[in-house]
Amino acid sequence: MNRFFGAIEAKARARWLIGALFVLCAGMVLADENPRDPYEDFNRSMYSVNDALDRAALKPVAKAYDSVLPLPVRAGVGNFFGNAGDLWIGINDVMQGKFADAGIDATRLLVNSTLGIFGFFDVASEMGLDKHDEDFGQTMAVWGVPSGPYLFWPFIGPRSVRDTAGWLADTFVDPVWSVRTRTELVRNSLVVTRFVDVRAGLLPADRVVDEGALDKYAYIRDAYMQRRRNQIFDGRPPRIDD
Q: Do 9 and 43 belong together in one domain?
């Protein structure tokens, strides 16, 4: 009798093992054939490099920045750099055919650069002139340029091929990078300050990822793709059929 039940138990274990191996192999095949992320091995390596750099240097600096500077100062810094980008946002509005939004962004730039003291105070938002979020990657998407494969880069983070090209264009016309002085000290200080300010703004998202994601890489990838799709369609993306 014991042998009989032992044989049944052994068969059950064998079936469970075969089923688990089947699921594992199926998952590996699906991962290799993921059309959104065909370079997943490379991307995961770059994510590991970026994560190590972030934990060693960038995140501690961002935490110190967040804890030392009072909230009004941090808000002013963010407003200043946001105001510096409103001109390029307006140009992208025009290239996408959003002329009303372009007028709003041009007015924002004028109001915040004057009444807002070079953009440190977001007076335009208080007046009902909402800020838009456009970049050249979104403009290329509106023009019909395909997204291309997903990529993960150190420092600049997740991008598609299209958004990588868009990021290069955005950087080329970035007014902060265009600052010219004798020693380049002012420009470099502005670039570093903006980078730290952006990283400090992502600290709350770190907690969400750390606490809720079993696979941080996949979580960040999927969140990035969903957010970019939402941006391209201005918060009204069409339904995707299965």
A: no
Distance CA 151, CA 59 (A): 22
65 shares a domain with 123: yes
116 occurs within a structural domain: yes
pTM over 0.70: yes
Distant-in-sequence, close-in-space partners of 160: CB < 8 Å, separation ≥ 6: 137, 147, 148, 149, 150, 151, 225, 228
Residues 24 and 70 in one domain: no
- The reply to whether 240 falls in a domain is no
- Each residue's pLDDT, cut to its tens digit, for the chain (242 residues) gives 444 434 444 444 444 434 433 333 334 434 445 788 999 999 999 999 999 999 999 999 999 999 999 999 999 999 999 999 999 999 999 999 999 999 999 999 999 999 999 999 999 999 999 999 999 999 999 999 999 999 999 889 999 999 999 999 999 999 998 888 777 888 899 999 999 999 999 999 998 888 878 899 999 999 999 999 999 999 888 877 65
Judgement on whether residues 90 and 79 belong to the same structural domain of the protein: yes
Number of separate domains in the chain: 2
> Residue 191, class by beta-carbon neighbours within 10 Å (0-12 exposed, 13-18 middle, 19+ buried)?
middle
27 and 94 co-located in one domain: no
Q: From the centroid of its chain, how far is CA 219?
A: 12
Q: Rounded to 5, what percent of the chain is helix, strand, coil?
A: 70, 5, 30
CA distance 62 to 74: 11
In a domain, 192, yes or no: yes
Report how far apart, in Å, the C-alpha atoms of 143 and of each of 54, 95, 138, 231 are.
Answer: 35, 9, 9, 14
Full residue range of the structural domain in which residue 27 is found: 1-33
